[in-house]
Design a protein that fits this description.
With 246 residues, this protein is α/β, with parallel strands linked by helices. The chain is built from 6 helices and 12 strands. Helix 2 packs across helix 3 and helix 2 runs parallel beside helix 6. It is elongated and about 60 Å long. The structure holds S-adenosyl-L-homocysteine. S-adenosyl-L-homocysteine binds next to helix 6.
């Protein structure tokens, strides 16, 4: 596969220092090589490398096209989890086509992080970019700042959209049933899913989500790790929505 590079401003004709460094030192890209460049907003260019400097790689555009966004949006509201699990969630949900990821703080999250931690935010953004490079996605999912549940706003832009929360409570609706109900109603293009942390949401937090209109759904009899629950939900919804909007 041709190397793919992320470049938010492709008109500049050069990659930023970290992408340039990666291309030169890790991928051994040379002048004359062909590569693909995407801007994260749907634009994808075929490019030819013209110069490989120490801090910047320059390219000229061979051809360019604007790819269509997905005709549906899956929004993931995810309670923070610790390192490896969190990275998996970012990577896999990006591969599985989510439009946005909203990290939320939960009482039982093992990870403690301030909403203003820009270093973490940038690291997470890079993990998302890597997943977009690998999976051929030309649209970066939106990564919201870390928020508390009570400050959470509806991640979808439309008025009413179905919202599910993965829940181990006995009254949670089986996912299949919950989805059938949603799919029967009008053509829904947006869907929001919330998943808890390692220690689960507290009953009070679950109450907050319910008050915001989240329907508790069950993913079956086994207790899944948070990352498994997130990946499961993203995969099922990606499958369903593609089928629906094919
Ligand atoms: N430590 C808790 C489990 C937390 S699982 C315990 O032992 O009870 C982490 C998150 O994954 C939960 O908050 C929930 O959102 C989701 N989850 C895991 N298994 C699930 C299932 N079978 N059905 C629905 N949600 C599930």
């Amino acid at each position: 596969m041709m190397h793919r590079f992320y470049c938010p401003h492709p008109d500049s004709g050069r990659l930023d220092p970290s992408e340039s460094h990666h291309a030169r030192s890790v991928l051994r890209v040379k002048a004359g090589d062909r590569c693909t460049v995407f801007d994260g907003r749907g634009k994808e260019l075929q490019a030819e490398v013209t110069e490989v400097g120490k801090h910047q790689l320059c390219f000229s555009v061979v051809s360019s096209h604007q790819s269509k966004p997905l005709p549906f949006s899956i929004h993931l509201v995810q309670a923070l989890t610790k390192g490896r699990s969190w990275s998996l969630i970012l990577e896999k949900s990006t591969e599985l086509g989510v439009s946005s990821i909203s990290p939320v703080l939960s009482d039982r999250s093992v990870t403690r992080i301030g909403a203003e931690d820009t270093v973490k935010h940038e690291k997470w953004r890079q993990e998302i970019i890597t997943a977009c490079k690998q999976s051929g996605r030309n649209y970066l999912p939106r990564l919201s700042p870390v928020t508390r549940i009570e400050k959470l706003t509806d991640p979808s832009l439309t008025q009413y959209t179905p919202k599910f929360i993965a829940s181990l409570q006995p009254d949670a609706l089986p996912l299949k049933l919950a989805l059938e109900r949603v799919m029967e109603s009008e053509l829904q293009q947006d869907i929001t899913i919330a998943v808890g942390p390692e220690g689960d949401f507290s009953p009070a937090e679950l109450g907050q989500f319910r008050a915001m209109g989240y329907q508790p759904v069950s993913l079956g009899p086994n207790v899944l790790r948070a990352e498994t629950a997130a990946i499961y939900l993203c995969a099922v919804l990606f499958y369903e929505m593609q089928h629906r909007f094919a």
